[in-house]
Amino acid sequence: MNNILESSHVKLRAPEPEDVDLLYSWENNMEIWTVSNTLTPFSKYLLKKYIETSHLDIWESKQLRLIVEAKDQNSLMNVPVGLVDLFDFDPFHSRAGVGVLIAQKENRKKGYATEALKLLVRYSFEILQLNQLYANISSSNEVSLKLFQNLGFTEVGVKKAWLKVKGGWEDEVMLQLLNPKPRIPKS
Fold first, then answer.
1. pLDDT over 80 (residue 75)
2. What is the pLDDT of residues 127-141, one digit of tens each?
3. What single string gives the DSSP state of each residue in 80-125?
4. What is the end-to-end Cα distance of the chain in Å, rounded?
5. 132 with 167: CB under 8 angstroms?
6. For 11-38, b where at least 16 C-beta lie within 10 A, e where not — what string?
7. Does residue 39 carry a pLDDT above 80?
8. Most CB atoms closer than 10 Å: which of 88, 97, 160, 169?
9. Domain boundaries 10-131, CATH class
10. Which tens digits make up the pLDDT trace of 10-33?
11. What pTM was estimated for this model as a whole?
12. CB-CB contact of 171 with 185 (8 Å)
């Protein structure tokens, strides 16, 4: 398989105009707002505008969002199951934040997030030639912490009482993954 954004089980692709209803349902699912630090709903208008500008490259928009599709081995149709994001892209320091969402509970724990994150890391280091990726994850999100740690991200710090949650405050763990083959500038 030559496509760096595809494995035998998962494909990452750019959002299409017909994805607006899907993105609308995912972005407005209040059950997952805590992992994305979302406090207000998204309108279809804003999501349409986002999709219209998603053709801009990461150097211009400072972000990249890709749809995670599960490959159905019994048909030719792939099924959208989530999103992966590169955000807060910093071209000078050659780094970006990473986010992963598998939207529906019935699609979780099937390896889609692991495959999608592996593909995104490879794309980030080989194509975008980033030096590092990072993730900020609430300390109670053990599944996400394990996912990132299993793929080589290491804990580099804890922000104490960083996230306001029902009934109080929660710590946020910062994880980092350095490119194993960094580009070394010539002097």
1. no
2. 999 999 999 999 999
3. EEEEEEEEEEETTTTEEEEEEEE-SGGGTTSSHHHHHHHHHHHHHH
4. 37
5. no
6. bbeebeeebbebbbebbbeeeeeeeeee
7. no
8. 97
9. alpha beta
10. 999 999 988 888 887 777 766 775
11. 0.86
12. no
